[in-house]
Amino acid sequence: MTTLDEIEAAIPALRRYAQALLRDRAAADDLVQDCLERALARREGWRGEGSMRGWMFRILVNLHRDGLRRGARGPQLSVVGEGMAELARPGAQEGHMALREVQEAIARLPAEQREALLLVALEGMSLAEAAAVLGLAEGTLASRLGRARASLRAATGRDLPRQERPREEGTEQR
Amino acid sequence: MTERHPLTDPELIALRHGTPPEPARAALAARLGADAAGRATVAEWDRQDTALAALYGPIAAEPLPETLRTMLDRAAREDAAPRHRAALPKFARLAAAVLLLALGAAGGWTAARLTPGEGAAVPVALAAIRAHQTFAVEVAHPVEVAATEAEHLTRWLSKRLGHPIAAPDFASFGFALMGGRILPTETGAAAVFMYENATGQRITLYAAAGDGSAETAFRFVEAGATQGFWWIDGSLRYAVVGEVPREALRAIATVAWQQLT
To answer: CATH number of the domain at B66-260, out of 3.90.105.10, 3.40.50.720, 3.30.200.100, 3.30.360.10?
Structure first.
């Protein structure tokens, strides 16, 4: 596989991750495009240390963090669930979570928990891989993941007996 | 290590996502066996992961967006270009083409999906597809001059095209040259080469004089089952079309571009 093939092979996962991270189709496409542009510009310097997937995710995460920093001054507009209406239809409650609930819970996570959780829960990365992408110690990542998992569980009402699932916002730890 | 206390979240995370060394991993697993709450937590995490996969998994199965495809094609052409001596002017021209392409992408007119009505936007691609669809099905007369008369073919097509051209060699893809023919275009004669592989699949390479348009990187077009890549290089416009998979076609077009330069 050439470097270019490896770059191309990483793109579908990057698109999936970006979409989950931003929940906005156009913004996710832009992020992946920026990531690819940077990866292509730097591909001559790629020495094959670590995985290409990890390298490209690192680029994407850094671009995303830059974007958050730039956007931090003004009000944050985030479109939740655009283009996802079909998938997020509630139904099949037993044994499955309502997808819309999960989506909204992910959206409410702090940015650093969201980027960490999606790497392992959606992309299937190991702690070591994800820690390298995020530039964190594994222990830091593990506790961040624990908090993200717990928030998600609380937000989807799963930490309470099934018969009474509270619907009010803000009753859990925020 | 027969501790009975429930696993903490970081321990569960390490067990699920980490790679703890063996004695430790087995100990964690044993404790989880005795920890109903821990198992319920893990089951809950499974449901979380399933939900995420259902929400976002389909995106990874989508075909690559055209913008990204174009960027990769451009990079592939850069990699394919010779990197020494005469390469420099070529690179400068390529840079200009890349800039134009970027402007084009910004304007939202990347790869055209050809329907007859939109043909005017990409005449060379449309002409190549028409030529291919007309002659690829020919049993008796797919070409005017057969490849056996290679020297005559080259001289004749170069003369009529007004530009030296030799048929690229696609043998590495299993396609052998059948021969060529001349077709009329609005800018003069076009040279058409046809190739065939062992299974009888045919591809067409089309070259016509330019119409003054600037150089481009590869552009993808499709019309029904026929797909093609077209590009403008120097004073000629080229297209490679056929019913072969797009990846294969791109590789063939890249080789054509290298050999025709």
So the answer is: 3.30.200.100
